[in-house]
Amino acid sequence: MANSALKWKILSLTKKNLIILFGGKSTEHEISVLSAEFVYRSADRSTFNPILVQIDKSGKWNLMSEDAFKGHKKGLIGKVFPAPFGKGTYLIFTENVSKKIRADVFFPVLHGPLGEDGTVQGLFKMLDVPFVGSGVLGSALSMDKEASKKLLFQSGLPVCRYLSCGRNERVSFKRAVKELGLPMFVKPSSAGSSVGVGKVKNEKDYYKMKEEAHRYCDKIIFEEFVEGREIECAVLGNQEPIASVPGEIVLSSEFYSYEAKYILKDAAEIVFPADLPKSVSAKIRSLAVEAFNALYCEGMARVDFFFGKRGIYINELNTIPGFTSISMYPKLWEASGIGSGELIGKLVELAFERHQNEKVLLRAYKR
């Protein structure tokens, strides 16, 4: 991919305080730490002053040093909270409110609920501060698998058959099999990293995995099994997004579980670019951008597909994809000619671009 497809402005000769927000109150807290370390190490020090802020599992905000990545308690510098102050947004120290650090832009790597679902994005909007990634609407829609599938379907994009089920709703095994067949998958509607996901092969599996999925989300979905290859594509941009070359996840296990992603060695091989016919690769890239736009995404997303004899199906979108050294999103852009440091710079450019565009909107009624 030629980088000339992008037209980027130079940020500023003044270094920007890049607040890398990680951790969070979710099942993906530990993965977020790995993503934060990668972003921290990759950020261009001539442009950015990267600052680590951890949201711990109780929800408190902590200013951290690099020692946080090593699990050292001395990684904690102090407790802070974000607040508007004068003409900017600052991290205010709780023990001494006269101490503050200017927050020029936030880079959230908060995977899963209370980070990827529009909640923290709403806070950034209230603070009137630039932030990387999708806004409230795009984040919320993409995080909710049922909502995203409905909108993708209404946009004429290919999604597999599914059923949704609230905690107090009853979807019988017989009905699910009639509509989806066996095997099928059960998933929490709003979770990530394959947490609470199970492959159902019989009635015993169905009720056991249904209960397990409900541990993580009040609403769950059942999906038909689509036999095929697991393909992923990265998208970058705001009004004119572009797609990376597709990559493939080749599994030695039944599906891409949490363990396969982060714990078990050799459970999956990541191939990029994927070995696909040119026409299929082009179609996947086109669908990735269409899905990105259909769900009102901005900045970045990873779009996951199934490709097999029945064709191409969109599985889901991740608006804060994994950002570790082996994660698909940065790897796909590396394979497309954009290294990790440049990628972070482009994502921050997009954050400032959106923030500046929103400045022209009226916030008060004028006759």
Outline of this structure?
The chain is an alpha+beta fold.
SSE layout and pairing:
Elements lengths: L15 E8 L5 H14 L5 E8 L5 E4 L11 E10 L2 E6 L2 E7 L2 E4 L10 H9 L8 H8 L1 H10 L7 E5 L6 H8 L3 E5 L9 E3 L2 H12 L4 E6 L4 E9 L4 E2 L3 E5 L6 H5 L5 E4 L6 H17 L4 E10 L2 E8 L9 H8 L4 H20 L8
Parallel strand pairs: 1-2, 1-7
Antiparallel strand pairs: 2-3, 3-4, 4-5, 5-6, 8-11, 9-10, 9-11, 12-13, 12-14, 12-16, 14-15, 16-17
Number of helices: 10
CATH topology (level 3) name of the largest domain: Rossmann fold
Q: Give the terminus-to-terminus CA distance.
A: 48 Å
Mean pLDDT: 90
CATH class of the largest domain: Alpha Beta
Structure description:
There is one protein chain. This protein is of the alpha+beta class. Helices cover 30% and strands 28% of the residues. The strands form 3 sheets. It has a 7-stranded mixed beta sheet. Strands 12, 13, 14, 15, 16 and 17 form a 6-stranded antiparallel beta sheet that branches. It has a 4-stranded antiparallel beta sheet with strand order 8-11-9-10, covered by helices on one side. It starts with 15 loop residues before the first strand and ends in an 8-residue tail after the last helix. It is built from 10 helices and 17 strands. The protein has 3 domains: 3-132, Rossmann fold, CATH 3.40.50.20; 141-158 and 228-319, ATP-grasp fold, B domain (D-amino Acid Aminotransferase, Chain A, domain 1, 2-Layer Sandwich); 162-224, Dna Ligase, domain 1, CATH 3.30.1490.20. It has helices spanning 29-42, 119-127, 136-143, 145-154, 173-180, 203-214, 258-262, 278-294, 328-335, 340-359; strands at residues 16-23, 48-55, 61-64, 76-85, 88-93, 96-102, 105-108, 162-166, 184-188, 198-200, 219-224, 229-237, 242-243, 247-251, 268-271, 299-308, 311-318. Strand 12 and strand 13 form a beta hairpin. The model is unreliable at 1-13 (pLDDT under 50).
